[in-house]
Amino acid sequence: MKWITYGLFGLIVSITIGITYWAARRTSSASEFYAAGRSLSGVQNGFAIAGDYMSAASFLGIAGLIALNGYDGFLYSVGWLVAYISVLLIVAEPLRNSGKYTMADVLAYRLKPKPVRTAAALSTLVISTFYLIAQMVGAGSLIQLLVGIPYETAIVIVGVMMVLYVAFGGMLATTWVQIIKAGLLMAGAIALAIMVMLKFNFNPVSFFDAISAKHGQRFLEPGLLYKDPIELVSLGMALVLGTAGMPHILMRFYTVPTAKTARVSVIWAMVLIGVFYIMTTFLGFGASLFLSKEQITAADKGGNMAAPLLAQYLGGGAGTAGGEAMLAFIVAVAFATILAVVAGLTLAASSAFAHDFYVNVLKGGKVDEASQVKVARYATFGVGTMAILLGLLSKGQNVAHLVALAFAVASSANVPVIVYSVFWKKFNTGGAVTGIVVGLLCTLALVAVSPNYFPAKEAIFPWKNPGIISIPVGFIAAFIGSLLYKEPQAEEKFDELYVRANTGIGAES
Amino acid sequence: MPREKPLNYGAAEPVYEGLSREHAEGREEWRPMGHSKIMAAAGETHWELKQPRGNDARWAEISESEEFRGLMRAKAKFLIPAIIFSFAYYFALPLSVGYFPNIMNKKIFGPINLAYLFALSQFFVAWAVAFLYARVAGKKFDTTVERIKENVRGRDSE
After folding, report:
1. Which residues, at least 6 apart from A173, have a Cβ–Cβ distance to it below 8 Å?
2. Domain for residue A407, yes or no?
3. In A, which residues are within 8 Å of B53 by CB distance?
4. Which residues 13-72 on chain B approach chain A with CB closer than 8 angstroms?
């Protein structure tokens, strides 16, 4: 079994290295490095968004949540698709029309570039770092679990791979790694779901009858995992708004030539992501049917092994050639999934540092093309090293909540200022800096005193997810900050941004 | 896709805008106006656009034009209700399973209960809103945007 897995891992590594080599020869300007030359089609970018977004946590984690907790696991998965409504209706097109490489470009358009870029780079780095730590720790423990490579080795392999993709192949290589991953992940999820439903003649009623018979109807009812509806609403707010403020997702809209293509790419991403999460329910419930709870939790307490074990069962069971081949395939899909997500995050973090902070804040924009790309590559090495170190240091820590925290920061610090910047004339530098800083600090402070770090009874803030408080605080802070600060120039330039964001006149091409 | 030309309002000379240093710095398209000795003598740097992009008045003209205002009205008329509906529909799910479990646990098809169908419907509702938006934007908004661009080009070539 190990050799099939190693073979498939080797295949993924060599294909992605090949892509990186190909992409590196096409990546010399800043626009090629950060935005793949704005040359992607809507379908390509749609696949890449899906590949950037669906992490191993959603593939293995949600299947496990459903396998162990039934309905509530499914409830959790819904927000991940609905999130794209905000992306589609509010940010994708205005962002494409008014920015260049990063989210901060939109803010800097009519506000004072230095303070707003510094603030936006800070929040981007915080979000990407939290998300990266969660992904790295997840990657280390999953690869250890799946193939038996030690945690530390796994972290270093993943870290080196992501740095290679991003540093040499830039956005183009990252994109194709994400496209391939999305294809593999969709194929894997759909194949497993079909194999599960084949056993029930594709009749959902008999499928659910079997679940109800094995685990009782209670398993199909809400309340096994989430006791407090407010907790779920708070998490939902962070997911549904936060996706529209995730730097690695927002960056993807600069890779297409027009706002219309950006729109088409969100639609494609929504189809892929939606189908994927619906399939995941068949995997989760399927695993709960064909495997015993003990089997799943013996392999991993969190249920991360539910989907791989289900694949092994469907292929013929442990020890059979079919079973081992299926297991190896799903493990390889999970590996590709991890690589694609961390590459996207590394690119976003490096851009925030190189493009926003170094080029535009420290150097006042006076940096030639070749040096811009060079700095971005150095930043990638820096981010990669930091991610590997943090991954190694966080071994054995419970980092699952860092994903939700990243979304909470994105929704509280980034989303208010993006929305105000494009839609509110009186918004200004004071509002942007206040909004980002207060949104960020409020989120971090609430989480620091939440049940994530304290026993439930002692926690000052009663919910694990701060969104329900921190998002309104972010909006209010940016609003008040704008009112207290006078900046007529920001108002004068509003018409320009407003027209450009909504029509694409003068947009980067 | 034809490449969008940067807006040039037909100005023969770059348009000088007296932007202050803190606004101009960090914008790649700005450069200090180096050729004015008087200003240099006064110890002041003024800034100009590397590519003449036009002045605020011309952008304001577009933003106040009937077509653009019509576009924004049409967008608001679609987007605001669509966003409110989508969020309301989404948050109704955790609230109703949390506060009305008895209703949500009602079985509809065999063991499949209302809670499951409501959660599943979220996917189809999100898709429906997205497709509807793509349709309306493709048919209505994009056409208006094209017309606005045509007008701008027409005025520039005068």
Report:
1. A16, A19, A20, A22, A23, A24, A27, A165, A166, A343
2. yes
3. 506
4. 19-20, 22-23, 25-28, 30, 53, 56, 59-60, 62-63, 68, 71-72
Helix (H/G/I), strand (E/B), else coil: A27: coil
A339-363 pLDDT, tens digit per residue, is 999 999 999 999 999 999 999 999 8
Interface ipTM: 0.93
Give A79-91 as a DSSP string: HHHHHHHHIIIII
Q: Is B90 on the interface with A (CB under 8 A)?
A: yes
Nearest Cα residue to A24 out of A175, A177, A166, A178: A166
C-alpha distance from residue A178 to each of A26, A171, A252, B59, B62 (Å) = 18, 10, 11, 39, 39
Q: How many C-beta atoms surround the C-beta of residue A449 within 10 A? A: 15
Determine phi and psi for B31, rounding to 5 degrees.
Answer: -140, 155
- Which segments within chain B are labelled E, that is strand? 16-17, 30-32, 47-49, 107-109, 112-113
> What type of residue sits at position A329?
F
- Per the CB < 8 A criterion, the answer to whether A30 and A356 are in contact is no
Q: Does B3 touch chain A (CB under 8 A)?
A: yes
Instruction: Give phi and psi for A41, each to the nearest 5.
Output: -85, 165
Half-sphere exposure of A41 (CA within 13 A, CB side): 3
For A485, phi then psi, to 5°, come to -110, 140
Of A75, A270, A509, the CB nearest to B97: A75
The full 3-state SS of A396-409, as one line of letters, equals CCCCCHHHHHHHHH
Inter-chain CB proximity A84 and B130 less than 8 Å: yes
Question: pLDDT value at position A190?
Answer: 96
CATH number for A195: 1.20.1730.10
Does A174 fall in a domain? yes
Cβ-contact A351, A376 below 8 angstroms: yes
pLDDT in tens, B50-104: 444 456 678 888 888 889 999 999 999 999 999 999 999 999 999 999 999 899 9
User: B65 to chain A: nearest residue by CA?
Assistant: A499
Q: What angle do CA A429, A433, A434 make, to 5 degrees?
A: 115
CB contact, 8 Å: B153 with chain A? no
Residue A297 counted as domain residue = yes
Q: What is the domain count for chain A?
A: 1
Residues in B closer than 8 angstroms to A218, CB to CB, are none
Is the Cβ–Cβ distance between A163 and A388 less than 8 Å?
A: no
Q: Give every CB contact of residue A10 below 8 A, 6+ residues apart in sequence.
A: none
Cβ(A336)–Cβ(A185) below 8 Å: yes
- Residue in the block written with tokens 């091409």: A509
Give the residue from B17, B78, B75 showing the smallest Cα distance to B50. Answer: B17
Q: In this complex, how many residue pairs, one in chain A and one in chain B, have their CB atoms less than 8 Å apart? A: 191
Q: How many angstroms separate the CA of residue B135 from the nearest CA in chain A?
A: 11
The reply to whether B109 touches chain A by the CB within 8 Å rule is: yes
Could you tell me the residue range of the domain that residue A83 belongs to?
2-503
Q: Which residue is associated with the tokens 């190896």? A: A328
Question: Which residues in chain B are contacts of A499 at CB distance < 8 A?
Answer: 59, 62-63, 68
Which of A245, A265, A253 is CA-nearest to residue A95? A253
Say if the Cβ atoms of A222 and B98 lie within 8 Å: yes
Structural domain includes residue A508: no
B61: its two tokens? 């003209």
Distances (CA, A) of B139 to B132, B135, B157: 11, 6, 28
- Residue A399 — very low, low, confident or very high, per pLDDT cuts 50/70/90? confident
CA-CA distance, A128 to A330, in Å (whole number)? 26
